[in-house]
Amino acid sequence: MAAAGLGPARLFLGRRRGAMRALLGLARGLASGPQTHFGFQNVSEEERREKIYQVFENVAEKYDVMNDSMTLGIHRVWKDILVHKMNPSPGTLLVDVAGGTGDIAFRFINYVHSIRERQLQQKLKRHQNLSWQEISKSYEEEKVKPLGDSQVVVCDINKEMLKVGKQRAQHLGYSEGLSWVLGNAEELPFDDDKFDVYTIAFGIRNVTRIDLALQEAYRVLKPGGRFLCLEFSHVSNPLLSRLYDLYSFQVIPVLGEIIAGDWKSYQYLVESIRRFPPQEELKEMIEDAGFFKVDYQNLSSGIVAIHSGFKL
Amino acid sequence: MLRGGRGAVAALRRAAGSRGAGGQGRGQALEPSLLRFLVCPLSKRPLRYDESTNELINEELGIAYPVIDGIPNMIPEAARTTRKKPPAGGSKETSGPAGPQQ
Questions:
Q1: Going by fewer Cβ within 10 Å, which terminus of chain A is more open, N or C?
Q2: Which intervals of the chain form a coiled coil (chain A) (predicted)?
């Protein structure tokens, strides 16, 4: 209930920066909790959440273009690998957290759709003596349930990112089995034991309390459900690490300025990757949340890693 | 002829009114399939979807989460400041047939 007091206080502060901020800064510092990091800066948890919200508010429109330029398109391959690893079958319920602009959700839909098509084709092949009526009925089935009851819920904390995602979905023609929710990974608005798969791609790095997000992931998954996390990780090879650092700190913020007109947001991005726990440490955190059979797979020599765990 | 004109104006006002109300977030309704997943992020208890105000209401805590552009806003901070109000907003009146047209 103390949090209820913080709500209006936070709004008030947001509107009167400057002088009031200096005065209330001390009280706020005491109230807003322990210190944490924003890139290489040290900030309070509340400040970190606000700053990260602003980063994504600023970059939302150019998010996809920037991903392509920074990773030279390789991020598409990483995301493809994630969905292939998931290997969803028709009827799977997926929650994609921090899914913003929809990359994972769209891939999931494509994958399930093609599996379903193949299923129907195989069914037809097996029954060679079908009448025309039976064949047309099975095509109708496919039209009515192109995804076979599969569903993906995209949850993100940032309104702008969701807006961009919804627009993309409209442009690309995705509507069936796809829904959007504005929510906080640390406090998911979903009931227990609901989803078959939980994914978080390039999002967990921006969560302030990773332990809470992992606990929520565990809660909303069905028993037998799978947790999948795709995130930037640590490169162990020293030569590659040097090149990667050079590229990250010299090239990426410049690209950010040229393409998105926002050096600082991309500086944050690069710093946040360095601050994020390495593979083994993240694995332990996932195990702490209760997941079993936790494992990780390095991609591109550890530039990114896919962590996987199961709720038993 | 006057009556015809009045009718046309009334129809225009109604159309403008409903679009105005949509701009305030009453626009797109919530997708029904989401209702089986959504709960209050604070208490994890079920919510009631109110179609008229396009909100998800937690009766126990007396808070309502708005649905904006078809996307439910399930952030607790956004909801706390939205106490359950009787639907007497100005925008609602214009969407009715009354209107200040004497």
A1: N
A2: none
